Amino acid sequence: MGPAKKPDSTATGQRKARIEEMRRADRSRERRNRLLVIAASVVVVVGLAVGGVVLVQSRSDDGTPVAKESASGSASSGMDGKSGKDGNGKNGKGTSGHFETGKDGVRTWKGTLGRTHTTDPVTYPMEPPVGGDHNPVWQNCNGDVYTAPLKNEHAVHALEHGAVWVTYDAKAPKADVDALAAKVRRTPYSLMSPVADQKDPIMLSAWAHQRTVTGAADPNVDAFFAQFVQGPQTPEPGAACTGGVDR
């Protein structure tokens, strides 16, 4: 395998500008979300008050509550089209395929990666996972470095938002772990955590892409970040990397 090409400085500058623009949009989105939460709380309180009045008025003469159907004639499940399990009651139905390794050493998932939201555990065909069904709440990935293992279901959601996930096991040299942590902290749309069961000491993952690196000084680290941080593989470009799970 030949050495990785040095990322084009113009493309890197454009990517940095785009990330900074996304960070500003992220902060604006957070402020808007706080206002929406306040408004939603008011609506819930009013709805509970109105519901109490309706319940009292809908009792029969003998004091027994009268059952009412929804407009569709059945109770709502509270799920949308991207929530819960698939039709067979199992997770991960939408994920199938295999990795193919390119000349640059990057493994690309050839097949399909599910994107269904579920609060149940998901079994992934690779470790760490590079996509698939995942939790509705993403892992914070605004240059976040975690010293404890994460739930894959949250981390995969971060990959869906365009993050690069740096992972390491107990065999990774501490100097490399520290240097990579410093790089992640400087890079929006990235995160880092230990993964005990991965096949190599240091690995980099993005949605549908993954590679092994020899250490923090490996030029493939910069090449992978340059290509995949908010890269073209991102299913939801510009989606938030803050406001999710932070532990």
TrEMBL record:
Region (Disordered): 1-30, 60-124
Biased composition (Low complexity): 70-80
Keyword Transmembrane: yes
Residue intervals passing through the bilayer: 35-56
Record carries keyword Protein biosynthesis: no
Composition skew (Basic and acidic residues), residue ranges: 17-29
Keywords tagged on the record: Membrane, Transmembrane, Transmembrane helix
Name of the featured protein: DUF3105 domain-containing protein
Record organism: Streptomyces andamanensis
